[in-house]
């Protein structure tokens, strides 16, 4: 019994030993590098890799979130790389930068990138873009971007950027007939490097050899022991610019609806419309229709008699003395009271010929005036 147990244990040990030997024989050790997600400054600052590279070269580097020459305490041997829109710099900041450049500073900037939303707020100049800081160096920035420079080994990030025109005699500069993408402009004892873009110095772009070499040439002339200030402007855009860039799916349909509603409610331009019809007065229409009927069937005398009876009835109520008289005495009183010619009153008291339309109309009109004056 013991022998069988020992044999079973031995077989089990042999099987386990064989499995371990097979696994060790077939196992191959490999090392893999996995890029972890960036955290901290490496995730928020695209100039982090440039900062690390410059520090490895023995340079003193300070990162900044905004360009403030006073807080940065710039010295003549320092270098400032500004990664932001030059149009947002205040007049005081531009003046301090110019004074620092004239004393020997080195400034690296890029022209504003193409942005249809931001360009809406610019002036109506179709050829050049207004950039106050670059205008001080007589650098004119073209509005429309162009393609790559032919025949020159330049970073790919400079393709499709805005070109600019530099003063005559500027050297070195990089460009073609459409304009330059790089120029080093002397300002007093200092200099300004103007580029079409600074995307080639970001963390994601420095892995390319051409970008590293071009970046090294930018800082190669700064071996003077000065400090390098890397400014990545993180200022938020204005509310109107944000709405113009990202809010158009909401405000554009609303603006179209508002324009349609205003168009529907506005006055139309065109020929004058006829005045609206007045309210119909059925009683007057019936009276007019009855008079037309009497005239049509030869009963014009009935119309005269009705108007004369109405006038005499009012005369009896307003002036009984004149109504009681007859003939010339009555006529004299009527002329004095009504201020009408005697001949006209004498004619109105006689019945007209039913076939004489003018005489009928004249007598009825006179009777109406008499009645209104009583």
Automatic annotation (TrEMBL):
Record-annotated DUF4350 domain positions: 42-218
Source domain of life: Bacteria
InterPro entries: DUF4350
Alphabetical list of Pfam families matching this protein: DUF4350 (PF14258)
Name of this chain's protein: DUF4350 domain-containing protein
